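WARN retry 2 of 3 for item q-0093 after timeout on previous attempt; input resubmitted unchanged.
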Amino acid sequence: MSEQYVVGVDYGTLSGRAVVVRVSDGAELASATHPYGHAVVDRELPGTAELLPPDWALQVPSDYVDVLRTAVPAAVRDAGVDPADVVGIATDFTACTMVPTTADGTPLCELPEFAGRKHAYVKLWKHHAAQPHADRINALAAERGESWLPRYGGLISSEWEFAKGLQLLEEDPEVYAAMDHWVEAADWIVWQLCGEYVRNACTAGYKGIRQDGGYPSRDYLAALNPDFAGFVEDKLDHRIGELGERAGGLTREAAQWTGLPEGIAVAVGNVDAHVTAPAAQAIEPGQMVAIMGTSTCHVMNGDTLAEVPGMCGVVEGGITAGRYGYEAGQSGVGDIFGWFVDTSVPPAYVQAAGERGISVHQLLTELAAQQEVGEHGLVALDWHNGNRSVLVDAELSGVVLGQTLATRPEDTYRALLEATAFGTRTIIEAFEGSGVPVTELVVAGGLLKNTFLMQLYSDICRRPLSTIDSDQGPALGSAIHAAVAAGAHPDVPAASRAMGKVLRGVYTPDAERADRYDVLFAEYERLHDFFGRGEDQPGGGNDVLHRLRALRRDAAARRTGSAPTTATPVAPEVEAPAIEEQSDVLSV
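OK item q-0093 returned
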């Protein structure tokens, strides 16, 4: 019997990547990437002179199909395999990315009557213009004591399905009325491949507020807006497919696009971060996967349901069937390191790095690694892009304490590296304090190439640290699900064992350094609660960071002559696509 192969396609923010994988052992034979022709539409609507308002981020759905037309056949060709031996294809996507469609799946922006209407286009995950609608969703849910709110750390994001849907209704009711389905892009691309619309359990749970088999009630939705009462049954609800399930067979048209055999298995869609867990062989309870790049997304399975403070969601079957999938995150990690290098490093350091042919990140890492724990005399808070978990407050900002005239750039750089590790430890302790043990940390993403950073995380978190053994974690994870959908492996755990790639225990905590870091972490915790809990919360201290943010907004409004704006804290999304796009720059 000849070897069998599958194709995994990872849809990021700016491009899609296809990888050809051998079913028997997970060997990655070739990959190909296709950039989206329209990239992110955040300035001007295509084909018009209309300028988009602030915080809008749209995409053109035909760009996603172009990935199937170009990257998939290119990867198969470069792999040197017979397309007849490919038995399945699966995709993962950024989330929450939403497509308004007709009953047959046609995006509304492709209809002549709506081609010039911004609400007819795909709303990308980082479309944040629905924040006022998210504020109302959260305030009403808290007021009514909706049982689903604690499953999301107490706040629903402006990036998710309901906030974006409510914005569409209230800002363009004509487009809303013409829309038959409000579709996650993760499900829309599967629909294009197999002709079947199936909602995947992952996005439905994490982004669609689906808990215990249902969505927010009609009564609750009507209280938001009477015309929103039927949103679930009219626009959203559909058959739910479990991860790894076969959604359908490849259509004749999609076979022509991809060069793959008609009728092969098409797996139910998935999310880029969550699909990485099986690729890293990290789906057992206690194995937390940290997908680290510009930001970090933490996902893990558990056998029991718990409400963890500040988590971004807990969903039954959200990572693998039969277990509860948990998600948390940090909204700034590599982005913080990048910000520091871009804004705070003297020219002499840049020159020294250039003369050695290394990056400034690498130079600072080398200098920081020469220090003893605590030698810099600093402690920092990793909130330069807000706090996602566990405080769930995007209005917080970064803090570096202890600087003197003797403080050097490598001192501050190391303190920032440590701060992100302290943030991950805070998340781990929140899980363990809620009865969800974390026994192993498994890292994926571009930052795992920084060996000093990885050892630092192991020391601070006092846990062995494993690393994924693949540069294509999401695409490999999709390929694993394709193999299951094709029947080549009985289930996702079995496919993960056969095809996943991980290096176990690459880093183990050094007892002496860990003890010293405990002292620094205690100081981090004090600062965390003093600046993060707020004056009106138990254990809180000072709201100065919020007041500074308000002053900044007021000053900016005065300078530009615009009205001051306010925002309610909300958890920003951490998506593997942002990691994907910048991880090469930030890996040192």
